[in-house]
Structures are given as C-alpha cells and as structure tokens.
Amino acid sequence: MKSQNGFLKFQRIFSASVIPVSLVIAFLVFNFIMGANGNFQGNNPANAPIPGNFLGVIYKGGFIVPIIMTLLLTVIVFAIERYFTINKAAGKGSTVKFVETIKGSLSKNDINSALAECDRFQGSIASVTKAALIKYAMLEKDTSMTKEQKLLDITKNIEEATSLELPSLEQNLPILATISSLGTMMGLLGTVLGMIRSFAAMANAGAPDSVALSTGISEALINTAFGIGTGALAMISYNYFTTKIDKLTYTIDETGYSIVQTFAAKH
C-alpha cells in the first residue's frame, strides 16, 4: 500500500510539472532555435525567412506558436506516459487467457492456483481479481452471514477494488480531452491574429507592405496547421486510451461476474 501511495504521489507531481516544463522548453526552442539569426535574410529575425528554411517559417507564426508547442509537447508526454501505464495495468500476457485460467481454477475450487495466477499476471485486472478472491476465501469460512449477504459482500469488494484502480488509469486523460479542443482554438486564434496583420498591411496607403503582408499570412497558416494538428493528435490519443481502459474495465467486470457466479453455484 505504501509503495502504491508513493507511486500515485509521484504521478501527481509528474503530471503537475509537465505543462510548466513544456512551456519553458517551447519558449526556449522558439526563441533560440527557430528565432536564430541564421534562419532569416540578413541575419535578422525581423526579415523574411531564408527560402526553404522551415524553422524560420514557423517562427513567423508569432507568439501563439510556443503556446501551441507547449500543448503539443504536453500531448506527446502524456500519451507516452499513458501508453506505458495502461499497458502495465493490462498485465503480463493475454487477458482472455487470464480470465479462462481464473474460471478454470474456480471451477475446481482451487483458490490458491487462482491467486498464484494473479501474482504472475499482475496489473489492475489481477489486483481487482486477487482482492475478490481473498474475500471469496474469507467468506467460505464465515458461518455468520447468509449466502445472499456473502454474494453482496463479494460484489461490493469488487466494485471498491475497481474504483481504486480506475483513477490511476484515467489520470491525465481529461488534459488530453481539453487540449483536443484547446489546440484547435489556439490555432484559430493565431489565424485571426495573422489575418488582422495581413489586412493591416493591405490597408496602408499606396503599395501594401509586402513583408508585413507575407508575415501575417504565414502567421495565419502556420498557426492553423499547428493548432489543428495538435488538437487531432490529442483527440486520437484520448480516444485510443479510453478504448483501452474500457476493455480493461470489461475484463474486470467479466472476471468479477465469474467469481460471484461460482460462489453462488458452489455455496
């Protein structure tokens, strides 16, 4: 329990630090790498980018770029973190085979074998199943409760164990869901600001300022692409991980149902 609490504390600290660190990295990259003098004509960031210089082109997207970069880095970090966390929670091996093994052990009334399989498989599914099996073994020896009370107690135990596992699986997913919309909105904000700059250049008396006009158009297009791409990546990540969590939850429910039904049939 102490190790689990320590891990959850580490997860909270990690989650809280990702966005500030990403923001610092994004502004450093934007100012010192994308905004380097060598990326622009005349070695001056105020001028147009050197033709074909992608970093200089992105820099012309304006101050919205590092904000969207922060969102993108956050999505990448949380996607990687969730991938390993959820895969670890899924256990070692096939969940289908795990469920079949548990069912087979219960049909033979071999609780020790089922517990050993949980220790081998590990992960959230095994943790919930093991908690239910321990309660199962305890209630087999309890003569003070009716069969209905025992079944209700096992079911309640499974629900409580599941509720303890789900928060760690769903952590950081709300951030991904938020960025899926926020990334697109920030991109549109950058688009509007870029178009304002472009129209301001066209409104000048006489010939329009071609540098200001091209800068405004670049800002609009870069932010649009950057924002939509970030939002799309966040949405894909969120849907992917929620689907995996739903599958894990279904497996937990299936295993719990098997435990309850076996107890009902044998007692």
General description of the model:
This protein has 267 residues and is mostly helical. The protein has one domain (75-267). It contains nine helices and no strands. The model has no long low-confidence stretch (mean pLDDT 85).
Write the layout of secondary structure elements.
Blueprint: H1 2-34, H2 54-59, H3 64-89, H4 95-107, H5 111-121, H6 123-140, H7 147-170, H8 173-202, H9 210-266
Radius of gyration: 28 Å
Count of DSSP H/I helices: 9
Topology as a string of helices (H) and strands (E): HHHHHHHHH
- Provide the helix percentage: over 70%
pLDDT averaged residue by residue: 85
Mind summarizing the main beta sheet? Answer: none
Overall 3D form: rod-shaped
Strand content: under 5%
- Stretches where pLDDT is under 50 for at least 5 consecutive residues are none
- Return the structural class: mainly alpha
Number of strands: 0
How many independent structural domains? 1
Give the N-to-C terminal Cα separation: 32 Å
Relevant terms:
single chain, about 270 residues, mainly alpha, 9 helices, rod-shaped
What's a concise summary of this model?
The protein is mostly helical and 267 residues long. 82% of the residues lie in helices and 0% in strands. It has one domain (75-267).
